[in-house]
Recover the amino acids of this structure.
């Protein structure tokens, strides 16, 4: 073998090893995702149904939206968050 062909063979071997490792990790993630959650880039596990839960939480919060808006307006009108309101 010539040095160029050895380098080419070594490169192909590294690419093959990298592909095997990536596919193994993908298979492990697919297998464990329904059981433990989905690994994120930060290393924490995320609930596989987090998106659905967020959608349902948002839908369940819709009936409370007018109440929260009125409470926010009343809080603003009383000056709860303005420390200088009562002093004037």
């Amino acid at each position: 073998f010539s040095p160029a062909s050895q380098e080419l063979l070594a490169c192909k071997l590294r690419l093959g090893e990298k592909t095997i490792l990536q596919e193994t990790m993908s298979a492990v993630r697919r297998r464990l995702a329904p059981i433990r959650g989905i690994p994120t880039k930060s290393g924490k596990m995320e609930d596989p149904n987090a998106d659905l839960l967020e959608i349902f939480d948002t839908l369940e919060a819709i009936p409370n939206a007018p109440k929260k808006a009125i409470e926010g307006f009343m809080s603003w009108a009383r000056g709860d968050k303005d420390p200088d309101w009562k002093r004037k």
In short: The chain has a mean pLDDT of 79. The chain is about 70% helix and 5% strand.
